[in-house]
Amino acid sequence: MRFQSYINGQWVVGSSEGVDENPSDLAAPVGAYGIVDAALTSQAVDAAAAAAPAWGLSNPQQRADILDAIGSEIIARRDELGRLLALEEGKTLGESIGEATRAGQIFKFFAGEALRIPGERLASTRPGVDVEITREPVGVVGIIAPWNFPLAIPAWKIAPALAYGNTVVFKPAEIVPGCAWAIAEIISRAGLPEGVFNMVLGAGRVVGQALVEHPKLDALTFTGSVGTGTALHRQAAARGLKIQMEMGGKNPLVVLADADLDKAVECAVNGAFFSTGQRCTASSRLIVEDGIHDAFVKRVQERLAQIKVGNPLDASVHIGPVASKAQLDTDLAYIRAGHEDGGQLLFGGEQVQCATEGHFLAPTLFAVEADHRIAREEIFGPVAAVLRARDYEHALALANDTEFGLCGGIVTTSLKYATHFKRSAQVGMVMVNLPTAGVDPHVPFGGRKGSSYGPREQGRYAVEFYTTVKTAYTAA
Ligand code: ADP
Fold it and tell me: How is domain 2-247+451-475 classified at the CATH fold level?
């Protein structure tokens, strides 16, 4: 299979070719993909700009029907799309099929939202005047997406963009061209006018940059690393581009001494290691109160010993490979940093040999101090840190002692501490007796501090980013 870009209603081969790797079997790539250059990216933005005025005035029922059809097809083909995702990104087949389903549900949610674009009508302070507040599309939306949710994240950006009448240029991450192509292929048959949706495959530094620098781009939604996000933020600010960013996390899961131990262990193992720890909401800091610390660590070690790492298509596997060689190198560097900083390795720490050559890494747990690198920096792999807390107040202070603020969790049977944590955690999303990862598709997603910038994504709150407000005054 050779995956292509989609520009102005045409499939475009591109000027060079990249390999679409299979992180579970490096000898059997998923396929190849055509790489477009800056000039073709510019054509995609021009096409989106040309299509924007008519699409912005399109009938909301037409948009709803198209989004609903896209969602229905994704859900009907979730097994096949999930298999492609598992092959290309490496999460288990169960997780992948779940993600495909969620992507379909998101399109269906925004199909409904296309028909419910909110507005207000108020009395004016001047006699005989009416005031109306309406929402209009922003125009051309650039979407730069990461590889870790290659169906769901594009869905939660593309669906609201189209629902609210914007046109789109979507640039996926380099290592997941197959999932991007699959989404584009479904969208290409859904009845959108030419130029409304475009997808460009290529490197961030080339295609991503050409997208961001294009004068006809009206807004940019980005999910990815802090480094890239910070650079894009600067560029966006310099030219007054509307921008929304979701970046890293270093999410705390607090386990109090009164917690149900089984629940605490399941929340920690799921949140830290499932999806190979490659979720921005992963519980990478397990902050455990003294009274339960040793019992908790022992039970997590026992639980991890039962976890099978391997090929994500094998139904008995719990954790698939790390998605790329670059990410594996990062994970291994942080494991070295864990040792160098004086952390105590509690589990894993080494690569796992499987029948095929792939980027398999054991779930890895360190006992650390709050100033160790693996307690502070986002790793984005199956590597978690345990921190010991004297009491609830100390645990809360540790939880908030980070530059990030995406998600935070607490496992406790105390209503008092659960309520206090919900109010005091400096995060955008808070979980009580649940893993920090795993969110609903119909409610806002996003964080505070260094994790996010701009309006929230998903649910009805997506309207903030994908529309601009107009205030109209009318006198008879
Ligand atoms: P990761 O390290 O997880 O790959 P990145 O932030 O590098 O995270 O990538 C997230 C997305 O941003 C990808 O689609 C990538 O191609 C894109 N990207 C990377 N660098 C740039 C850049 N300089 N300009 C625009 N997009 C970029």
Answer: Aldehyde Dehydrogenase; Chain A, domain 1 (3.40.605)
